[in-house]
Amino acid sequence: MPDATLLEVFPVPDDAPFVIEHTNEEFTSLCPMTGHPDFGEILLRYQRAPASSGGLCVELKSLKLYSQSFRNEGIFYEAVTNQIRDDLVALMKPAWLQVITTWRGRGGIRSVIRADAGEIPEHYRGR
Amino acid sequence: MPDATLLEVFPVPDDAPFVIEHTNEEFTSLCPMTGHPDFGEILLRYQRAPASSGGLCVELKSLKLYSQSFRNEGIFYEAVTNQIRDDLVALMKPAWLQVITTWRGRGGIRSVIRADAGEIPEHYRGR
Amino acid sequence: MPDATLLEVFPVPDDAPFVIEHTNEEFTSLCPMTGHPDFGEILLRYQRAPASSGGLCVELKSLKLYSQSFRNEGIFYEAVTNQIRDDLVALMKPAWLQVITTWRGRGGIRSVIRADAGEIPEHYRGR
Amino acid sequence: MPDATLLEVFPVPDDAPFVIEHTNEEFTSLCPMTGHPDFGEILLRYQRAPASSGGLCVELKSLKLYSQSFRNEGIFYEAVTNQIRDDLVALMKPAWLQVITTWRGRGGIRSVIRADAGEIPEHYRGR
Amino acid sequence: MPDATLLEVFPVPDDAPFVIEHTNEEFTSLCPMTGHPDFGEILLRYQRAPASSGGLCVELKSLKLYSQSFRNEGIFYEAVTNQIRDDLVALMKPAWLQVITTWRGRGGIRSVIRADAGEIPEHYRGR
Amino acid sequence: MPDATLLEVFPVPDDAPFVIEHTNEEFTSLCPMTGHPDFGEILLRYQRAPASSGGLCVELKSLKLYSQSFRNEGIFYEAVTNQIRDDLVALMKPAWLQVITTWRGRGGIRSVIRADAGEIPEHYRGR
Amino acid sequence: MPDATLLEVFPVPDDAPFVIEHTNEEFTSLCPMTGHPDFGEILLRYQRAPASSGGLCVELKSLKLYSQSFRNEGIFYEAVTNQIRDDLVALMKPAWLQVITTWRGRGGIRSVIRADAGEIPEHYRGR
Amino acid sequence: MPDATLLEVFPVPDDAPFVIEHTNEEFTSLCPMTGHPDFGEILLRYQRAPASSGGLCVELKSLKLYSQSFRNEGIFYEAVTNQIRDDLVALMKPAWLQVITTWRGRGGIRSVIRADAGEIPEHYRGR
Amino acid sequence: MPDATLLEVFPVPDDAPFVIEHTNEEFTSLCPMTGHPDFGEILLRYQRAPASSGGLCVELKSLKLYSQSFRNEGIFYEAVTNQIRDDLVALMKPAWLQVITTWRGRGGIRSVIRADAGEIPEHYRGR
Amino acid sequence: MPDATLLEVFPVPDDAPFVIEHTNEEFTSLCPMTGHPDFGEILLRYQRAPASSGGLCVELKSLKLYSQSFRNEGIFYEAVTNQIRDDLVALMKPAWLQVITTWRGRGGIRSVIRADAGEIPEHYRGR
Fold first, then answer.
1. Chain-chain contact of B28 with G36 (C-beta, under 8 angstroms)
2. What is the mean pLDDT of the segment spanning G87-101?
3. Considering chain F, what percentage of its residues have pLDDT values greater than 70?
4. For residue H47, what are the β-bridge partners?
């Protein structure tokens, strides 16, 4: 079952801006309607808050374990996307954050879901 | 015969914005002039209304069954495109919605039809 | 001889906007100077008028037959492009319309001709 | 010797705008320094003046013969580019015109020369 | 251990602007959590200060030795990226500077980190 | 030794604007630190001054000989780039000029250096 | 329902050998287990018997109509492949014949079925 | 747990030879050493026995369910490959059979395992 | 220091033949002449001995740790390749084994080294 | 006019076999029927005779000048190909020699001509 307590953070050392992207090519969960497995790719992109505001980054191994906790969960694509956004926003309180999930498809239909939090810079919109 | 009653929805949990794309690579209907089969790809892209406005998403398996209901229908490309847009707008009342259909062609002519509802964000126009 | 009477239309059901592209990869006419065949690709892109203004779409099979009526006509590239634009504007009175013809070339010279009617949206110009 | 008298024109039938591109992949002239042959590609792109201003188009076969008249001329890349622009502007008095020449190179140096006349639309600059 | 004293500079001769990119495809460090090696590519892009402000460039071989000093260091991706930015900003005091690190991934997750200093020109953002 | 006296010019015939690109794929110099050869590609792009201001173009064969004069010179990438810019600006006094050098790399580090003179048009920046 | 009586033939004029390939990219039938549509590509490759043995070729439009007769048939991939092979062997009695069907897949599994009749030449095996 | 009883067969109608390939792009199991998920692609290729010898084919949906039964099994790549080969050989007694598994990799190491049963035709070996 | 004691094996269950490939894209060692890092890709391909002869497979995580033990070793490309072959042959006594190492190169020279043990099947030679 | 006296040779130092290819991408001659220019690529491939038989190689700059001597010659593709073969066989008396000419085409027809002298090795035939 998706378990946000698996997520760990580490503080950022200073206020200089930077943007982080993590792309998980090995995500799988279950379709809540049929029980069959879904396979997707999860792109997480965010700018963490500055150190002076208590800025935090998600630790990579904990992100992997958190992702694996969806493995046997029956859950819609949209709910996966929203939950990852919400859990990470709650965890890190970033300046802004995007989650883009791309699914291999079932019954001939491929899907992409994009969820945002905060003001996404112009050059990252729709990408 | 195209049957919008096959479509099912599920409510969205909150108001955070997200954009959904479903691409059906296996659409087929019949040419109303000749009875020969047409083959196309249907891209549906939309931003659902926020939860506080009763926002809804179309369920994926129901979208597949709805798409299959065009299989033996004699219908123009433009009418396919418009009907899918109209049925889904009536169903979900989204913030905005695009339907882009791409057809393999007959007699050497390939076609693309783009139908919109609401205000499409700049970075999705003509794409 | 190019014959616009071959073109047929069908009415559009409502006022919701959509953009249509037809690409004919199998166009041929004759060079008016030498009598040799020219081979080209014809891209037609338009937004039809809304139903409330009597909006019409060109029917695809009739477009194919119309295109074939140029087969034994001696006619310049520019004239082909203009005539198709003019015949289709007269037929459909669309909101806007583009005709882009791409020619395989003669004597080592390839050509592209772009003809417009009405105000082409920014994201379609030069494409 | 480059001979602009080879160029022929034909009048345009109306005022509707269109843009014409001719790409000659088989251009050759001689280096004025060494006498060795140069090989290049010539892109001519222009919007002719409207019919109401006496708009003209260059005829394609005459353009080919004109291009061939450079075959045994010792002439710099820049001069080829400028002369073609000037001859065609004098001939057609177009709304605007670009000549872009791309040269296969000598001694390991490839070259591209862009010459303009009139106001080039934004979406054609640097292309 | 990362050693900024390995970095050497040379003065720039004048004030004319230029932008420098160095891409190191052979970066490796260690994961601070597991001790396993990480492999990445480091893009450094900057505009040095003008000579009249004491502008400096980093010397390439010293940059390579500095990069190699991370080889046996246990350090997070984000910290690598920030430390390289901070060390080079302290060294060169450039007009602006970007460090973009791209990591091959662990546990199926690939990462990209972008850190900036100063005002990045529009045409380099998000690239 | 780099020898700008090898460069020759020829006058431009008129004031019509044009942009020239020369790409030398066969540039080599020596690393001033190690004495090992460096291999690079040199892109020179400029708009020459109009004829009415004494506009000049660099002659191609002289550019090749000038490029070859760096062959046994120990010189940094940045210095190559700046020297070519400065020598050509002094020679031609162009409206604007870019030199972009791309280096195959040493020790796993590839480099690109961009040097400008004058106001570069928007559509050539960062390209 | 698959209907081999739709197939028509024409006689071959002489005994010189030749090999024919027809690739139908628009084949669809139904899954006999679930009723859901299957989409595939059918490659037919054969060498017809010589004219002196009554050699025959399948007529192309009749092959298209025959293919369309599978549209609403519930039938396994293997049975589609075998039936096409058997119907065409019975119709044409070719020297040899291959049917290779490639299916877009269901539930993440793509399939290719190869059925042969007669002695397939070495250079067509497994292709 | 891998469950061969999920597999179903159907009889083949005749003795004409054919070769079947099923490629499952969505296979996942668990590493028996670490418990972390593995992701792979399974290619099954076989020639079934002729009908006169009781030839059988594996039914596609049952193959999918069987593949899914490895989802939460801790098992080596080699054991996955061998078990699939052994289960399918026991089920179908084919003329020959190949299983080729391709794994996305862990710790930077990608793997391919090829297991055979019977005499593989020359043109399928090592492919 | 390269440490073959890190390697672990597991027994194979039966005698059915199979071929295993492991590709490590993240190999690094040090140049014994200069001390600078080398980066390469290691392909290991082998057929293990049958179970009846005590056939063994190398365990993947142990192979990764063994590969990492070269990280700070000064060693030639050829010696890396030979040592990996010899250590794995001694460990597993396979039917045959190939090690192919591909190196990113230094000073502009890329290298590939192929080492064999036993009789390599025809279709794997030179690949 | 094609002038074989432009060709120069140099002797080979020993008897060890080697095969030489020269590819001229910038060949042009004239069509003898229309006077229009033809553009082609000339591949010359040969094994020179051993030194002990007076083996000779064609000098590269002389080959270029010889190629340029066809520039204003009216000559068929086939005659170009044959003459180059005959002139070079007479000049060098090689063990074997191929001339393969590839022409950009006129009126939509591209052409390739292959002319041989001596016994061409199996692996160069038809390439």
1. no
2. 96
3. 98
4. H19, H96
Q: What residues form DSSP beta bridges with F109?
A: E24, F106
**Could you report the per-residue pLDDT of J29-76, keeping only the tens digit for each?**
999 988 999 999 999 999 989 888 888 999 999 999 999 999 999 999
Instruction: Please give the full DSSP string across G1-27, using - where no structure is assigned.
Output: ---GGG--EEE-SSS---EEEEEEEEE
Neighbouring residues of C74: CB distance < 8 A, sequence distance ≥ 6: C29, C30, C31, C32, C35
- Considering only CB atoms, which chain I residues are within 8 Å of H111? 20-23, 60
When the pLDDT of each residue in chain B is averaged and rounded to a whole number, the result is 91
Closest CA–CA distance from residue F53 to any residue of chain E (Å): 23
Name the nearest CA neighbour of A67 among A2, A115, A5: A2
Chain H residues within 8 A of A31 when measuring between CB atoms: none
Chain F residue with the nearest C-alpha to that of I106: F107
ipTM greater than 0.85, yes or no?
yes
- From CA C15, how far away is CA B115, in angstroms rounded? 11
Report how far residue A39's alpha carbon sits from residue A102's, in angstroms, rounded to the nearest whole number. 9
Tokens of C79: 């004239």
Q: Does H104 contact A36 at a Cβ distance shorter than 8 Å?
A: no
Q: Which of residues 60-79 of G touch H (CB under 8 A)?
A: 76-79
Distance (Å, rounded) from C-alpha D31 to C-alpha D106? Answer: 10
Q: pTM to 2 decimals?
A: 0.88
Provide the residue type at A54 as one letter: G
Nearest to H58 by CA among B12, G111, D125, I20: G111
Rounded distance between C-alpha atoms, residue H91 and residue H85, angstroms: 10
Task: Report, as an integer, the average pLDDT of H74-84.
Answer: 94
Using one digit for the tens of pLDDT, what is the confidence trace for F35-78? 889 999 999 999 988 888 888 999 998 999 999 999 999 999 99
Contact (CB, 8 A) for F12 and F55:
yes
Contact A109, H75 (CB under 8 A): no
Quick one: pLDDT band at residue A21, thresholds 50, 70, 90? Answer: very high
Is the pLDDT confidence value at G1 over 80?
yes
- Within 13 Å, how many C-alpha atoms sit on residue A2's CB side? 21
Rounded CA gap, C78 and C101, in Å?
Answer: 9
Query: Where do we find the tokens 């249907």?
Result: B42
A79-118 pLDDT tens trace? 999 999 999 999 999 999 999 999 997 778 899 999 999 9
Q: pLDDT value at position G89?
A: 96
Query: Coil, strand or helix: which one is E10?
Result: strand
**Percent of chain D scoring above 90 in pLDDT:** 72
Pairwise CA distance, residues I85 & I103, whole Å? 17
Report the alpha-carbon distance of residue J77 to residue C68 in Å, rounded: 35
Asked if the model's pLDDT at residue G46 lies above 70, the reply is yes
- The CA distance from J124 to I13, in Å, is 48
A43 in the Ramachandran plot: left (φ > 0), alpha (ψ -120 to 50) or beta? beta
For F91, the enclosing helix (H) or strand (E) is helix F77-92
Beta-ladder partners of F42? F24, F101
Q: What is the pLDDT of residue H16?
A: 77
Report the C-alpha gap between I15 and G96 in whole angstroms. 38
Distance between CA atoms of A55 and A46, rounded to whole angstroms? 12
Q: What share of chain C is helix, strand, coil (3-state, %, to 5)?
A: 25, 40, 35
How much is the average pLDDT of H10-17?
A: 80
Cα separation, C68 vs C60, whole angstroms = 13
Q: How confident is the model at residue C127 (pLDDT cuts 50, 70, 90)?
A: low
From chain I residues 87-116, the ones with a CB under 8 A of any chain F CB are 104, 106-108
Chain centre to alpha carbon of residue C60: 12
Amino acid at A114: R
Of G107, G37, G116, G22, residue with least CA distance to G71? G37
